[in-house]
Amino acid sequence: MLTRRSFATSFLAGAAVMVASSATSAKAPSTRPDRKSSLTGNLAFPTRYRTVDIDGASVFYREAGAPGAPVVLLLPGWPSSSAMFRDLIRELSVNYHVFAPDYPGFGNSEVPDRSHAPYTFDALGEVIGKFVDKVGIGQYVLYATDFGGLVGYRVMLKTPHRMTALVAQNNPLFLSESPWFGPLVPYWKAGTAESRDNARQHYLTLDVVRDLYVTGVRDTSLIDPEQWQVDYSSLQRPGAADISLDLLYDIRTNGSTLKRAQDYLRAQTPPTLVVSGKNDILFPAENQQRYREVVPNAEIQLTDSGHCALADRSEEIASRMHDFLRRVL
Asked: Which residues belong to any copy of the AB hydrolase-1 domain (predicted)?
């Protein structure tokens, strides 16, 4: 019988093998057969699994598509990783050069000790900014979801005019008063060991991670449970839980960054597509509609899904992205 503990152990062992072999896979051609895009019928490029050193830490990323094609940078949300983009990467790689990194402490990236550097959104923004430069990305379309926006906006603001378009999927541009954040409020206000422990006991549970995937979804049988199981198991890595708690605490500092992002987007009006799940418990339809307050011409095409809309609406979102990017790039 597969217990939660044995599942976590087997997953972590597999993740370690993946990271160890990523440098080799970056050099060797893929032996997997080509797969076709379900949307275009064209051959999709194989996904490469690579690592790059950023300030002494190994950052894992997925890459697919033809060099020289327009770049799409995929930034994941909490508590997931680039794994959430598996299907989308395949669909987009037909026409675009796709990069999807894991943040330090998440997915298959290294987990640097918290005593060496703080885990904040400013710090993650610095890492992803350096990642963009190191892998040779010039301009890019930013696909951001959840934490991905808080990180991606920082990259956007530090290197203006490199973002050619924005695709938002359940991504905050305005603060949300969702009840999901309720148990975090005492932690934000007090920042004590007790409030941190209370946040740990609530948020770092399989039920909360699972609910991010299934809440607001019409047909949960379309969602592979391995997705939330893997996310939860990743949180069990040594040090990973405290990294998540640090970042959940740092959410309270993002008001000024969101204001700066709003001002930048209002001034530059980049092509913007919102493909969020309208039943999201964190950033529901009315929150995502507010993109038009900043970018009046934003295309808002909400899907009948929840927070992790790619889990059951990946093909629909990919189709809308193909149509959007074909028109604006």
From this structure: 70-312
CATH topology of domain 18-26+34-328: Rossmann fold (3.40.50)
Indicate left, alpha or beta for 72 from its phi (over 0: left) and psi (-120 to 50: alpha): beta
Torsion of CA 97, 86, 220, 207, to 10 degrees: -120
Orientation angle between helical segments 226-235 and 206-214, nearest 10 degrees: 140
- Using alpha carbons, select from 206, 202, 215, 168 the residue that is nearest to residue 311: 215
Active-site position among 97, 161, 307, 322: 307
* Gap between the Cα atoms of 48 and 132, Å rounded: 17
As a whole number of angstroms, the distance between CA 167 and CA 276 comes to 9
Closest by Cα among 54, 78, 74 to 251:
78
Of the candidates 323, 308, 319, the residue with the CA atom closest to the CA atom of residue 91: 319
Cβ atoms < 10 Å from Cβ of 257: 18
Angle between helical axes of 4-27 and 226-235 (0-180°, round to 10):
90
Q: Please say whether the beta carbons of 226 and 235 come within 8 A.
A: no
**Annotated catalytic residue 116:** no
Q: Tell how strand 272-274 and strand 140-144 pair up.
A: unpaired
Maximum alpha-carbon separation in the chain: 57
Helix (H) or strand (E) holding 164: strand 163-168
What is the percent of the chain where pLDDT is above 90?
Answer: 85
DSSP type of residue 303: B
With beta carbons less than 8 A apart as the criterion, state whether 92 and 72 touch. yes
Which residue carries 């991606």 as its tokens?
A: 152
Handedness of CA 187, 193, 198, 199 (dihedral sign): positive
Please report the pLDDT score of residue 36 as a whole number: 60
What is the residue extent of each domain of the chain?
A: 18-26+34-328
Reading the block at residue 230, the tokens are 């893997």
